[in-house]
Amino acid sequence: MHRLASPATTLAVLFGLLTALSNAVAVAAQHVASQRERGCRHGWARLRFVLRQPLWWAGGLGLVGSLLFQALALNFGSLSLVQPLLISEIVLALVLRRLFAGQSISPASWWAGSLTVLALGLFLILAHPGRGSTSATPAAWREVLVGAASAMALLVVVAVKRSERVAAGCWGTITAIAWALEATLIRSTTQSIVGHGYLGALTHWPLYGFALVGIIGLAAEQTALHVGPLSVAQTCIVIVDPLVSILFGVLLFHEAWPRAGATLGASIAALVVVMLGAGVLMRTVPEIVITPGSRATSD
Questions:
Q1: Structure pTM?
Q2: Which of 34, 24, 19 is closest to 219 using CA atoms?
Q3: Distance, CA of 176 to CA of 222 (rounded, Å)
Q4: Which residues is 298 bridged to in the sheet?
């Protein structure tokens, strides 16, 4: 098991938090970029419009940074340790909204954010999940890949012709599943590079799966940011991602959790509080409103 104070775990936590910060910057920037002139352009016209915006590319740099930080975090810690840290993205987004968008954040949002951070810290202290094995069996991969693909396909069907909030929630959940799967593939690709070198990794499938799932996740995230409220999409992403990642970590890498009843129960309770705090944030954080040619404001 990991000790929270061990050097490896400390680095995993540090890089995990940097991943969350990079994600918060990326999501906010690309949401603003995708919402400009909303409804005026569709398909390829919208894509060309978005790609001409410097703000969208700034968000893209944030995504690249989050990918690098996540790879480093997963090199030092388990999926069950690193991925829950990404929930802090919602709290970091509050700070970014206040500092750079000048939004007025309600006391309920700050309290919910503080509770989320405290519960997340308690979860990490209690759970300290182990890294498990460094590789997964082909049978385990098949089960996870088929399950993930089926869930995402079902959510696509549910999102069709639904309200903006439902559609944003569905696409946000699809994004979360894709990013959770991407995290497992980052870990497997890193192990391929360590064991076989950069050229040797080209002969192993995780590298190509990592690229394919990354494209799917990026497309789903851009859709989530466009079809509905940022508060819904972002909250679904950061809540579902760590939950699915924990499941993948157990199924693929047999990551260990505390077996003592009281400790396990307290760990689960802390994680539930984290989810509840994030849910309050979803309802209380003001939405970013974009008008053509104007700066972002809150409603």
A1: 0.76
A2: 34
A3: 12
A4: 288
